[in-house]
Amino acid sequence: MSSRWGRFVRGWLTASFAVFVAAFSHLVAGGAAPGLMSLVLALAFSGMACVALAGKTLSVLRSTFSVAFSQIVFHMLFGLGSGGATSLVMAGSGHHAPVTMTPGAVAAVDSMAMSTAGAVGVDAWMWAAHGAAAVLTILALHRGEKAFWFLVDLAASGLAVVLHWGGDLVPVAVRAARAPVVAADDFVLTPFDLLRSSLTRRGPPATRIAF
Length: 211
What we know:
The chain has six helices and two strands; from the N terminus they run αααββααα. It is mainly α.
């Protein structure tokens, strides 16, 4: 894949595989399922970055930068389009009026406090999952592309051998041997003729007259 289109295909394949692995690791780490808009944006940004970093030859360093950037983008965008918004309703009038919070708002504030307290632990597990996904993606892409091109070279070598041997073969015209033609007036002795000739010579011995 040394051409421009080859680098384009390699970059988008890297981005697509990285999106899939990152989404899976994000869910395993306890994150919310990413929305469709998050996946589209993550794939778009990651695809452009991976195509820009794709070189003429396979490089572990370039693949590492591509996948690492993709994982950061995924973590930032996977929160978009998932979950719902909670509105905080406060009742009151005037500058010094008392503020009244509805029961739903109180529950929302408590939930936000609990999530803030556990955010450090969740982020640690989340980044660990994204790191594992990045390592898995780099290994799979590096080894997978080498295996793919090995199979392509093997198939090309086999095809070249077949075409080479096929080109050395020279067609040879083979003439069929003709059966001998026997003329109709020629005498051909058959087994029936042999049997008939032997039967005509059989009989009693001829008598001789003695004087």
